[in-house]
């Protein structure tokens, strides 16, 4: 029961990673407040956690709206008595090059992926301070560590990585830790289901572990960062990517060199 007595807000909770995080947190004893645009899926998830004996409440919530953030945090305090964990997990993607980027899709991607977590921290952190402190986990991407062929998404996720470090130093005096995680392609998510043709298959060709990650693997990492087991970790950026961001280039090169050597020998 690594989150016994804790209250956690998870955004984007109706999506692939959010569902896994919500279930993992509830199983570890947290009361979970689940927010997402998608009411049916969010209500269903909260009901299933309650049916299994957990404490869960869904709120329809667009993370770009500060007023809605205030509602979510106020209701969380009323329902469960405080806030200890915030997971800024909601995200969107535009999949457009710089040349093709229109200002509406740029603005929406930046708003959801970067302004949303900023507003979440602005509103939830004082409530976390009043609850004795806690942990914020910002879900960035490998697109926040290296370039991806997607202008707004890459810029928003690099921004979130930097914002997380600013938050880590700002909130340290409130006993709140802030870290970012950086997944590569994660199976069973809207992001992968709606990816461009060949999206997942090509990823497996360049990820040293040669497979996609799972929502459960991400939830295990987020749970660790949310819990007191990571009590000395703040301002960190943690890749969860099968070796992609640290070693893909060298791994692909080794495979190419072997292929070229074999061809030359033949
Ligand atoms: N799936 C991947 O391959 C992958 C890789 C790297 C990073 N990520 C990041 O992981 C996070 C979780 O995404 P996922 O993989 O579970 O994908 P997903 O599409 O299954 O879930 C995303 C969820 O966010 C919700 N959402 C979108 N805009 C919102 C808004 N304005 N307000 C509230 N909720 C909103 C969606 O309704 C959806 O339920 C995202 O931040 C994403 O950028 C995903």
Automatic annotation (TrEMBL):
Keyword Oxidoreductase carried by entry: yes
Domain of life: Bacteria
Its EC number(s): 1.1.1.47
Record key words, sorted: Oxidoreductase, Plasmid
Segment forming the signal sequence: none
Top EC class, one word: oxidoreductase
Cited Pfam families: adh_short_C2
GO molecular function: glucose 1-dehydrogenase [NAD(P)+] activity
Family in the record: Belongs to the short-chain dehydrogenases/reductases (SDR) family.
The protein's name: Glucose 1-dehydrogenase
Species: Ancylobacter polymorphus
């Amino acid at each position: 029961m690594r989150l016994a007595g804790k209250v956690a807000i998870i955004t984007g909770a109706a999506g692939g990673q959010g569902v896994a995080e919500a279930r993992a947190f509830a199983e570890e004893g947290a009361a979970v407040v689940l927010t997402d645009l998608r009411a049916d899926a969010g209500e269903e998830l909260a009901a299933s956690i309650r049916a299994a004996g957990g404490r869960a409440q869904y709120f329809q919530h667009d993370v770009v709206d500060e007023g809605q953030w205030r509602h979510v945090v106020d209701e969380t305090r009323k329902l469960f008595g405080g806030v200890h964990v915030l997971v800024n997990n909601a995200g969107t993607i535009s999949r457009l090059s710089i040349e093709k980027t229109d200002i509406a899709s740029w603005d929406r991607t930046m708003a959801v992926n970067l302004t949303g977590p900023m507003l979440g921290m602005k509103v939830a952190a004082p409530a976390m301070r009043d609850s004795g402190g806690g942990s914020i986990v910002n879900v960035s991407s490998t697109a926040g560590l290296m370039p991806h062929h997607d202008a707004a998404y890459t810029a928003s996720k690099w921004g979130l990585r930097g914002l997380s470090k600013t938050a880590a130093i700002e909130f340290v005096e409130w006993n709140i830790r802030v870290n970012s995680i950086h997944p590569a392609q994660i199976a069973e998510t809207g992001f992968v289901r709606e990816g461009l043709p060949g999206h997942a298959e090509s990823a497996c060709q360049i990820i040293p572990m040669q497979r996609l990650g799972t929502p459960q693997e991400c939830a295990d990492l987020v749970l660790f960062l949310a819990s007191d087991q990571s009590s000395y970790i703040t301002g960190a950026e943690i890749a969860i990517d099968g070796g992609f961001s640290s070693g893909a280039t060298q791994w692909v090169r080794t495979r190419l060199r072997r292929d070229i050597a074999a061809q030359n020998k033949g």
